[in-house]
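Quick illustration for those who missed Monday's session on complexes.
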Amino acid sequence: MDKRLFFPATQRNREFIGDALSTIIKKDGSILEIGSGSGEHGVVFQKRFPGIIWQTSDPDLMHRKSINSWIDFEKLNMKMPPPLELNVENIPWKIPLKLTHSLLGIVSINMIHVTRWTCTIALFKGAGKLLKNGQFLLLYGPFKIGNKHTSQSNYFFDNSLKMQNDLWGIRNLEEVTDEAKKNGFLQEDIIRMPANNLSIIYRKFSS
Ligand SMILES: C[S@@+](CC[C@H](N)C(=O)[O-])C[C@H]1O[C@@H](n2cnc3c(N)ncnc32)[C@H](O)[C@@H]1O
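Prediction with S-adenosylmethionine bound:
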């Protein structure tokens, strides 16, 4: 049965996120995506970077069903593994050994502002344990800088998030980067993206 979900934002941002990824995917290996949602990013990036294995994950069963449906629809079953059931707060993450050994980095798109702050803390803690020296963590989404919104649209978006759940909200980049540093990451690059979003590239510098 076709269980594909359609998240409209993925249509608008996937090409730009793919461009950001192309600056850091330099060799073959695996990428772990955290909070993959519908799976639309996963199949697009798997097709764009045929040398890598794109490992999706999500704690939500409906999302994992959608990811499997997208993999079937795009006939990527021979290449892409099924999604992992991964909640960042359940540390240590249960990751197949094969994936651990071939990992190039971790990608998480539009996750940290649509979860509570403890998920951001857990994301870096889990990633810090899993990743080795030189491997990357790419975050994509809206951020505040110096505790200020970078646009009026982000301000309105932040308010709408908080109305849905008062623990959600656009994060302050400096506080996110503090969590990264606590877990052995350096902030390597900030890439400005359309619609007032950023891609932040963190690099693990201690194993
Ligand atoms: C706003 S959606 C973004 C989905 C997708 N990355 C995208 O950009 O379309 C946030 C995703 O984070 C997932 N999520 C929520 N809590 C999580 C957690 N504790 N650990 C990992 N993922 C989580 C949700 O199930 C959802 O798929």
